[in-house]
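Notes continue from the previous slide.

Worked example: a multi-chain complex. Inputs as given:
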Amino acid sequence: MASPAVSYARGNQQRFLNELKDLLRIPSISTLDEHKSDVQKAADFVAAELRRIGLDNVESIPTKGHPLVYAEWLHAPGKPTVLMYAHYDVQPPDPLNEWISPPFEPAERNQNVYARGAVDDKGQLWMEVKALESLMQGGGGKLPINVKVLFEGEEEVGGESITEYVLKQKTKLKADFALVCDTELFAANLPTLCVGLRGLVYTEIEAVGPKTDLHSGVYGGAAPNPLFALIEIISQLKDAKGKILIPGFYQGVKAPSQAELKTWKRLPFKEEHYRKTEVGSTVLTGEPGYSVLYRTWARPTLEVHGIPGGFTAPGAKTVIPARAAAKVSMRLVPNQNADDVLNKFKKFVKKLTPKGIQTSIKVWSRGPACVVGTDNPYILAATEALRDVFKKDTVFIRSGGSIPIVTDFQDVLKIPSVMMGFGLPDDNLHAPNEKFHIPNFYRGIESICVFFEKLGGK
Amino acid sequence: MASPAVSYARGNQQRFLNELKDLLRIPSISTLDEHKSDVQKAADFVAAELRRIGLDNVESIPTKGHPLVYAEWLHAPGKPTVLMYAHYDVQPPDPLNEWISPPFEPAERNQNVYARGAVDDKGQLWMEVKALESLMQGGGGKLPINVKVLFEGEEEVGGESITEYVLKQKTKLKADFALVCDTELFAANLPTLCVGLRGLVYTEIEAVGPKTDLHSGVYGGAAPNPLFALIEIISQLKDAKGKILIPGFYQGVKAPSQAELKTWKRLPFKEEHYRKTEVGSTVLTGEPGYSVLYRTWARPTLEVHGIPGGFTAPGAKTVIPARAAAKVSMRLVPNQNADDVLNKFKKFVKKLTPKGIQTSIKVWSRGPACVVGTDNPYILAATEALRDVFKKDTVFIRSGGSIPIVTDFQDVLKIPSVMMGFGLPDDNLHAPNEKFHIPNFYRGIESICVFFEKLGGK
């Protein structure tokens, strides 16, 4: 038997979808200055709706960048408090000519709504808002648990303002757990919870050799070359099989449990399909003895992203540059300590630096891995809610990437995040023809309703 | 006793210098479109003077870029024919605020003339013209040898037009040797001939991995990274001591003669001064067991000049790029074959390419080393001429760089070049406050007069 909230959601699906389309029509592209007022417009649209459905203290909080939207409802004493997160800004729509229908004119085809931001993340934000409306209506003006809402408009440009806000407003944002709706199902119709993210240490090794750029004809053979030095250093950080050679690097690495590994093996994952359609290389690479999912979700890695310096335009210039740099990052897994890894990295780079060259290391970002146990009460309730809605067992996955806000919630607010997302692997995030599968929009709303009802003890 | 030509040159020094200043006032910056007419103006200035002093068939030859200036005098049957080379274009003068006097308003200080192009190469071009005038005047309207003149206006932008012209006009340019005045003395008052240049093979290794740029969080551990592949490959091309590891690379390498090595040891070269003032690094590097001059003049080297690809702007982007490239060059010495070296390089890079990556190699330029024996009759005559003028023994040096036109003369016209230059190591080529030491301008004119007189049998 559907709860009153779920019944209400089912009865209002078409209106919910129409409202989402209105939100999708606002081109809230956070990275483009000329769309600054559109980002504000989207924030106002969302804030007005939170107010209309009955939340308290709704505010649009100005920042150095785009506004945050906050709202709360705290009238369920003794019940848990959730901090609900999503973002209302979107990626630019280029290349425009590859869109079948215009990016900011939502169109329906094959049970999908096509528009920039459909799934990332306006559709999932609106799921959260519409779940709150349904719960409020189904509960006679009351929610089953306490709710704090914090939506941002800078996710696609680094999310600096929300990080600052979380650091400053620990008390205001105090909650028992966060709900983050910005991820996807592992496969269509497969209820999925993401319970782990890798951490990240992103550095830039700067190398200095001669006092000025030199002619490689005149000085080649006597002058140290910072670019070659970086190559020498980085080639010794990782072997050809993907094993990282920094002394002590793997210290603390915690393997996933046997149970978790077993569930990964049951996931509908076809390596050859993944190689062909997602990576597109002739073979996949990485540490022998680990599956692709293990390697990308639960093994640390080291990558080079760019090597600024010297001459990189078309043609030939025979320069030995005075300086060069290399962007090198490491993905971390539980229970590696980011500071510890960084120190070991720094020490090893220093040791590998050849004579005649000075290196220094700039740190662009650093954060540990995030993992939530599948026996965590919020994960348990979410698991049950998804099973109820999808009529299927929930799968637990991890992601190899990092979601900075989840790290902030873990490190600053000390709360776990329930990453419950309803996108699909082929939803074209950040690409032309982004879409959201409409049945998933509806199932998302119902799942959140049931999830909160379970936590509220109904 | 000075010859009539040398006496004439001495009697006209001030006029010659004034004319050079007029040429220096023309801002013939070949790389800047807005100065195209100035480059033409400089060509016309030079052509007019060649006509005035009595050369035949003077022409300003239009090209796709800037004009070539040709002239000849071929009335010395049975005598050798020289092909005289210099260039009348100059580098841009930036940064302007570091010039003590404006770059195109020649100023005299401490027996130097300061201006852009003073030594590189208008001053040395004008030496050639004024030597011809002096010889013509001193010889009663006759020159001691046959003369062909070929001046270019694209040396600072690659010299493409003269290379094409040489290829097309082999018969017209037929000569016994070339005189190239675009180099420098090893030290002040030390008569110098450059008798060797290193060759160059300049390549770009292109590496392709995934079909598109990938997120290093999501795909790190499974997707091949073209940047890391390049690092792996290049790190295996050369060891930490500078030894190149390409199989067969050193095949054919001919060491300088014991006599040449002995003369290098007598050159006024101070390694510590060179390290501090020229290179500016904490130590010098390169193959153990070879002197700095040996390493930079007569040992092959391998350098990396730039690694385009991935993310190189300030900040952090977690990308595994679909493709990346590396500009890698090798300097060659006698008797390495450029094609042979290139083939060995290609084969080795292919062998080192890790799985999942495809590499291909683009060749930006390739040419062998150039060396002239010190027993060559033209070098012998030049040596004697310099000794007569400087009252000192001539030193023979090499240069680690390549001068493409010298390679063209060697490979296409099959003639050796006498590289007789009168610049000084501190003349600020390509930098603010470029200068030419005025006594060297005069000695250059006299040296060319005596050189040609000796070849003419006077």
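Summary box: Chain A has a mean pLDDT of 96. Chain A is about 35% helix and 20% strand.
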